[in-house]
Structures
1.
Amino acid sequence: MLFGRNKKNPIKIADKGVVEWKYTTCGYCSTGCSIEVGLDDKGEAVASRGVGGADVNRGKLCLKGIFEHELFRSAGRGKTPLIRERRFDEFQETNWDTALDKVSGEITRIQEKYGRDSFAIVSTGQIMTEEFYTLGKLARGVIGTNNYDGNTTLCMSSAVSGYKRSFGSDGPPGCYEDFEHTDCLLAMGSNLPEQHPVIFWRLKEALEKRKFPVIVVDPRVTMLAQMADMHLAITPGTDVVLLNALAYVILDEGLEDRAYIDANTNGAKEFEELVAQYDPVTASRICGIDEDTIRNVARIYAKAGSAMTIWTMGINQSTHGSDGVVGINNLNLITGNIGKPGGTSLSITGQCNAMGTREWSSCSGLPGYRALEKPQDRKDIAEFWGVDEDFFPEKRGLFMTDIFPAIETGQIKGLWVIATNPMTSMTNTARIRKTLEKLDFLVVQDAYADVETNEYSHVYLPAAVWAEKEGCFTNTERRVNLISNVIEPFEDSKPDLWIFNEMAKRFEQGRKVKFPETASGVFDELRTLSKGRMLDYSGMSHEKIEAQRGIQWPCSDGDETGTQRLYTDGKFQYADGKAKLIPLPFIDNNEKPDEKYPFWLNSGRVVEHFHTRTRTGKVGNLNKFSPTPYMEMNPDAAKALGITHGGYARLTSRRGDAIVMVQLTQRVAPNAVFIPFHFHECVNRISLGLLDPHSRQPAFKQAAVKIEAANDQQVAAQTNAVSRTY
Amino acid sequence: MLDKTTSKKYFLRDDEQEYAFLSDANAPKKNRYGNSIELIEETNKLAGKSLNINGDSSVSANPDRYKQHGFYFNADNCISCHACESACSEKNDLPPHLAYRAVGYVEGGSYPSYTRLNISMACNHCDDPVCLKGCPTRAYTKFAEYGAVLQDPDICFGCGYCTWVCPYNAPQLDMTKGHVHKCNMCVDRLEQGLKPACTSACLAGALDFGVTETTPENRQQLKTQIPGFPTPEITKPNIRFQQTNSLPNEMKRTDSVPLKYRRDGTAGEFEAELDTSKADTNKYWNLKKLLSSHENAHIIFTLTSQSVIGAFMLLMFGADIGLASLTNSFVNSFIPVMATLLIIFSIGMVKLNLHLGKPQRFYRGFNNWRLSPLSREIAGVTLFFMGFAGFALFAGLSQYGLFTTVELFSFNVLNVVTTISAAIAVLGGVVGLYYMIKLYLIPARPYWNHWQTATSFISTALVFGAVSIAVISSIATATLDSSLVSQTALVALAGLVLEGIGLLAHARDLKKHKGEGAVSHFEQTTRYGKSYWLRNGLLLINMIALAVIAVLGLNGLSGVLIGLVLFSSLVVSAVISRALFYVLVIPTTMPGAFFWRNKGFQEHARETGLAEMQQVGVLPGHH
């Protein structure tokens, strides 16, 4: 039986020589996995592994986390501040003092000349909570611009808006453990295997123990759709209609939890009147789901002991994004599925600290879920920071997606972009280029000097990345987790907290306000400001967070640990403690396929990449799985157009054109195509992005395009190749 | 500062979770192939030995240490999240262009009733490891511990033959390092009672690992076949599958291999067949690709070695089979013919050796003579070279009348050593040629696994054996001997007819072949279609020309010119033919993904320059 040599050579297996493991939290998506980075005897980060005892990931990581140690020294990192007079000059290397003086000088100059709000700040979901809070203090309390927002407007803004409208406050009420209790899972526009593989694993583990129905609503046959018990291949942009129809059946058949509705909600009457217009037959003609299926889903959901809905960008990135979230909340309120084990509305968040910015950055208001619109909140924060109450505006300013049009038309002259890449991430690339050209002054603060937006900047500030710093992230289930400092920042890059603090010192008001030097110093302010509020941090400390591998807020002073679910007592954040049932009329305003542009254009994420690939595009063992953009297209549709598998197609829309490699697959409908959003100069050259009226989130996922085979395949291949600088 | 010994098992965690531990196995005594799962008795001298992993001399107390282990893949569950392959690459510190484990997929159905079947595949640590048998250097060992088939890159000389014979694409030839490496079953983790890194990283309940023929908890099946997986008969792989979800009757690949998997009705297994729906059906020359492949060294080596062996055999035995003028020409122009043939042969040998990843380790080529046809071929060819060179030397001496009178025990020494050399060369030539044919008869490479390989190689020996003698001798003597011309033409004609018959049968059988063979034939008639027909045309014209010459002979200046044209035509035809032989082989590997493990994309990345970025995961060019 046995072959080979009798006298065997010793076996050699790769040994990275790890001598120390350091605890931290993954910096990609918002699953919030605890991760340990291994350092070798030279202090270099050489390995990553999941933390076994962490409740979120229980030792597992997705591929991005598995290679996360490689990003510290990956290509394209910024080494030193860069400066230039005009955006078309060559960058000159400079020191931090010169760069920061230039930025603060330009902010002052622009504000003095054009008014305080003519300088805008666009931030991110990527930096630590302590940094968000500090930036908020700087933006609201020192610089004093009301045009300050984050890129979370591109991803979670609709969830925030929907939660606020339904429950009176932001804050996802559920947790991953709900999978262990639920009797029915509805996933709308959420593709866990691709976007949140570790959350998918938690779901899969729950299903291995106890089978429950999984219903997936998605226009594409994703892996989640494929493994679901029911897949509803919905017409893009019509989720609200489906949700209204589900409510119709539940109310029509008396399957609702009337006691819960009566005790805990307002607005039932108006809601029921509106829903009455969406009988399954009418709805089926709009949303493309047949009436029997609608009835079946409604009955399964309503009759389940507990039922939960998860969603991601399929709901949020739509002209009815906020309404979609409200619709999900409506469904759960009428079935009594909020705040109970296995019954919840759980938005599956995108960025590692999108939650942190929602809670503490002051983008949409003031820290700790406070609102500019509330005089008491303004007063409290003004006192705490030591600034004049009247310095705060009485209403929030522009959203990120409104800031860019305001630059286009000249109301905003200067912009500070922090850890985000609108050149690639926002719709209509040509328009964004034209917009950025118009700025008097653009400062880009990012870990990567090759971030595409830097093409238009006057000053570039190199930031430290992920665990080169320390602080906290909040994940999808409100778990605050710790990123401890693993290695020193690359070259002369600096933690964002240091940059904000140094910037503050350059303003007269900034020298009066207290800016703690350390993340834990800032964290103390969060504890004080959150005490007694819904997002209570007062019982947490960095040490306690690490020991428990993350703590879910609220965690009040004296509490042993955090809280798994919100609203368990049926008390909501509206003044009267009741949630709102909100009627959702459907207005069909999408750009839909027509004779000229006959295909739906959908975009989304792939598992190996994150956002605009500034990180994952440089890690070969991730990037190799999709090193260049591609388009999923139905082979039947392609055949008629002479488009071949692996060839290039040219797409045109009312915005412009794009060249992309074609992958033929029956995963997409004959009249629809899908393109990953991660790549520069690709899908966002042609996307539309109509804005949601409540959340101002763009409808990335609905636009109409025309498709033809690229005339000259070799030219097309070159056109694509030159856009791949990483 | 810290105890560095901890680094030896850096993968161990204090808070390791249940899923990562090997579970107790209740395995049957024998596996489905009839082999014992218990690989050795406890009393065996191989038992109780340390694996000496990275200098650790401890012996694991794992109770199943001497049982055959293997992967379990639940195809119902895989979501293609790449966690397994990434955990593997992270643990083994692999560069982007390599992977011990890869996830590909097949898909079928029509929107929205579409099904994608993802397949994660690494080494199957087979009962019948063809890699181990094929490897000429004995770099492979099948261990009594876990039945792991491990390969030692420090022994390997980078010939890549294991990558030819493995049906699953498990051994990875690393062009940047010049050696092969592969899945090591994470034996270091097994020794600690932990499942391999890939399995522990799985996020979908798809990948599992344990003693073979045991069904993991919550799983129902122990299959050895799913669509896309080659027949287990070749190697008796230690992988078991679950695949219970209904599949469409036709599953297609997304990579550039025009194959699909079909089953008739709902009961049977899927079988591979040609899929031209996504393929380009136009005919091309593709000469550049044809003549610049990694296998050029093989083209040169096989053509030259077969020609020289053929020439030598004609010298030795020509007179016995009525081809005296060939033998005579050889003898008459001994020095030029011998010198030229030696040079030609050496060029082929050097070319082949330099194509190794580690040419300095060439001497290891014989190590596995007990099992490897490649070792035997190398031994045969080397023997031939030695005998041939010896013969050239000794026979050359006697031609010049040197040392012709030396005697020992009343034997003429020069005659004796000349005869011995000739005998060695004949033996080496026969053995070398036989195993040169044999080594290409690989079940995982249907295009080669046909008797046409034999007719082609023998044809080369006949055609160029005869022609090279005639050409060199004619040049050396500056004459065109009419009987030499006609005998040469006859031998060459016989060779071409042999090749022609082989090719006709090959094409016929490939068309009938369901899977990769049919794909090879499809590519032969499309992608390389024009080159293929040029070769066929030349073959026919050459046959006619040789028949005419055999009758009419070649005379005067026009004869010389016609001879030169024909010679060139023979060479062109042979080179195209042999290049097609290498470039058209489609191995029975696992389905790839759209980018990763897709040959079509790799070529595209090289052509467009995308491959210049290392993070694209495609090496820019071959060595």
2.
Amino acid sequence: MSIFREKGTFTRRQFFKGSGMLAATIVISGVFAKFGYDAWAASDAYIEKRISGLYTLDEKMAIRKSHQNPEILQIYKDFLSPGEVKPVSEKAHHLLHTKYGQDIPELIKELHAHQHDAA
Amino acid sequence: MSEVRGKVLKHGEQTRTMHWVHLVAFIILALTGIGFYFNIGFINNMFGGGANASMVHRWAGVVFVVGPALYILLNFERFARFVDTITTITKDDIGWLKTMGGYIPFLKGEVPPQDKYNAGQKMLGLIIIIGCLLLILTGFPMWLWRAVVPPAFLAFCYSVHFWVAAILILAVCGHFFLAAIHPKSRVEFASMMIDGYIDAEISAHHNEKWFNTLEEVKE
């Protein structure tokens, strides 16, 4: 039986067209990749600056820990746990611990019930 | 029709392998893409839910890129010949488009002799190359750079990706119909999907210009 095959010839025109298509694809993909890399790098640089800014602000603060804040300590001594500093006192628990989601209606009821106490 | 006996090796082993890999990747990409874009439960569930379908889509996209890239690197000559064929538009191709190769009953006229690929296949080849490039260029930013590129650019990528995918899915459906179902052209099915060979008589009729350039080997 006869079998027909393509000849092994490879013309200059075929080479240039194939190379051109490949080169165009590589260039377009490269430009896109560069755009993405630059966007990524710019985002990273921004995040680094933001982190650095937050740390710098924090370092400049006179009082950096809430449990060492004299005003907070005074509030505990005068009101939340009279005569002492007791962070989880019952009053502190009720007034400072927040609630969320389906517990909110219950919290509103509780606040209404105690509104005269606070006054 | 000329009386020619024998077989023509139309597509080599690596070409057929690349075609299979690209086809399977495309089907997975199309299914997962449609599944999670339109939130179609039964398609997503085939891939383990919407989130998994999205992950399968991304990695199938990698196969979709790597398959042809490897083929081009290992078979540059074949790729260059293919590019040369589909970008060479002659009067015969225009003639084929005027009669649509005789596939449409009310378009009468003589179909001119064709290259290895007829004018319709050339158009499809160009649509697939440009379409795939657009899908790749918009797909990877949507995956890898979604947190760092401007939202307007990301929205542009989504729109281009969606519409190019829609056009390619329709084009591939048409390609499947002509290559596997239409009685006039399904004779070529085995040459790409199975053993690479096609009857010489059919090839001499459908791809006369290309057939005349082949060399005959007795076996």
3.
Amino acid sequence: MQSERLRHMPNRALLLKLLSAVILFGAWEIAGRVPVSFAFPTFLESMSALFAMTLDGTIFDAYAETLKPLAIGVAISAVLGVAIGLWVGLSSTFDWLFSPIFIVMQAAPLAALIPLLVLAYGIGLTSKVLVVCIMAMPVIVLNTSGAVRNTPESFKEMGRSFLASETSILMRIVIPAASPVIFAGLRLGISAGFIGAILSELKITPTGVGDIITYSRSIADYPSMYAAIFSIILLAVLFLNLLEKIEVTLFKGNQRDYVSN
Amino acid sequence: MTMSQTKETITPAAAAGFESAVSARNISKNYGEVEALRDMSLEFPRGQLTSLLGPSGCGKTTLLKIIAGLLEPTSGEVEVNGKKVTGPGPDRAFVFQDFALLPWATVLRNVAFGLEMRGVAPSEREARAEKYIKEVGLAGFENSYPHELSGGMRQRVGLARALAVDAQVLLMDEPFSAVDEQTRRKFQEDLLQLVQNENKTFIFVTHSIEEAVYVSDQIAILLPRPSRVSEIIRPTSFRNKGVDNIRRDPEYLDIVDEIWASLRTYVE
């Protein structure tokens, strides 16, 4: 059977991903050719602009700048976010103390708060890192704490009845059990961090990729503008894939295949 | 009544001529206003299987978890081999109703979990885990994950995990209630074998009358509101007649009927 054969193809997932990309980029190309707006370049124009920027090194210089707040902010958010989330999930005192802060952070209109951050921390790296953190951390903290709080009671009872120490229960049971939701939080948080990094370059000082976007728009070089946007999305997707690989390696049994696979 | 010799009122185990491995004395447990157990005393003879049988809400799982040291009684105490229970200990192992297997760990690591927590070296604990995996009939599945196994196989993993730590007392909380009927029957036969071969004391919670009568040396009937031990039944004649003959033995059938007669008024 046709569907049977498709199902057993080893690279079915990859094929579907490629198909999805072809549809998306095809639609982009067509929309650019119509054109939807004179400010909307075609896919191929954008790609050749990206290629040109790669050749003359502009894109690398830009990322050297953009990656600084992004990497620092994402690293802080991931490490601190998971740590605070664990703490909040395990202790009701910390839940009361910290949860409201992160709920407010998540709901806050960040663009409106940026002037305040600039006032307090200037226009340098600190403010940009903070923007990334404010975007990335809340969802990481809230997911982690929620997942930890929902560890199945029977897992913990099992641990205790087989003489696991409190530390062992945390390390061997609570964290692995929470890991799918923690990783879901990391994925959401880190994508938000990418948005934050670009937002900070658009709103605070135009540097790196934000500078390419702002500058190309001001001179109506739309292909370059979209090339820059495309490159940051590509980087985010690649990074999220890497994160998924890490998760699969660490917690293999948590990955359940789709029944149809 | 032919049944009278098999039935005793609540007498201490010593009077009936056996040694207790576990004694529960005057156990009460309150959850706030709710009284789960009131002044319950029960002896569990060494090397035998005792079932706790009763309608839901009679506190049988609560009593089991108190014996396991997972719950603290409001008053009263449990002794295992003469030592007062203050928490979980190496002398007891638990088999869970919902299996409680770690989904991210292989069968081997799940079975070795108790040994790992006791600080047994990796090579030794793997060897011991493999031995018990074979014993419960799961050889070849060492590197499978729980979600790849059927319900019955999962509970075999739970059983192997409990056997691997070699505790003298095995606590089983409705271990077969989540597996299908045929698997359950096979489990019950295997359990009889296990009680005979392993010199362990089994405490077995169930809500199935037939299952309790089939597998038990001693059945404690628990009744709710207030939770109490209403009677203790010790089947005498059919245990050695072979697994295939138990279910049509007259004593087996009589005891099943008798227990149903005393429980039916408590079933809503």
4.
Amino acid sequence: MKAETLATLNAERAARRPVILITDISDGTQRLVKAADFGADPLHAELEKQLRMGKSAMVEADGKKLFLNVYAPTARLVIIGAVHISQALAPLARSLDYDVTVVDPRTAFASPERFPDVKLIAEWPEEALPGLDIDHYTAFVAVTHDPKIDDPALLHAFEKNCFYIGALGSRKTHAKRGDRLKAQGVSEADFARIKAPIGLNIGAVSPSEIAVSIMAEITAELRMPRDAKAAGA
Amino acid sequence: MLNRDEDILQAAEAWQKAGHGVALATVVETWGSAPRPAGSNLVINDDGTFLGSVSGGCVEGAVVTEALDVIASGEPKLLEFGVADETAWNVGLSCGGTIRVFVEKVGQS
């Protein structure tokens, strides 16, 4: 591996930008492809598939055996609202390798007793979120049911282009949320990105079951190709 | 999407910049119950110091020895380890799997 390849690889990883290192194992020749350049690459279908799966693998192309080493950032989950659902959601997400942060300005909710071993920030989203460096590899969930807390948080999620944005609330609650957000200048396209009612429809009732339905929906968003998601919807 | 090997590649870069000969070993193929998935890295410097893993600890010793050769020659190598392997590199994986490990020098021109 060339020194400059390693330096670029480390720089991309530090910036939380996904890259794939392609090595021809017959002679060691290599190239590093940034996710932004996948579209123009002759191996774009394989690159996109392996990145989506987060899996490194050997592929064959033009009679050559090429190893695709995938370097994808750790996915994060930001939960707005230290509520009962979040108490089930945080440990479940951690078991799926997400870095989890819970934000809720209400200190009675955001207490370490209720959230042992979870990064917890008892501040308003406007104060807490800018410091979290939220990016595309972040799933964002707003579950306080309180527009004063959820709405500004959702604005931040749109701005950072989170790969998943979900908000708790019935269709009626969500329609009102739409009125409020659009009055603040949110585009129709951004509003349509919110998954609401949140989670896959599996008939979830208890907080733990709702947590399962949310993580299932986040997993589908992360792993499934776009056309398969459309077909399944 | 476990962000493994975080510090391993940073260490490889730091060692190389400090003037060490450095080799990078990567699991490129696995069969059966391999302990570490494809993409796992082990980095070795010319002192024999290493970080990371390519197995549960069973073949690292052999990989380090091979890596010192790769640092000296600059030529990459593809190693195979497994229970059915009859080659000189047969140290055996206690778990019964087979892995292929690609070893390359860092800092190739």
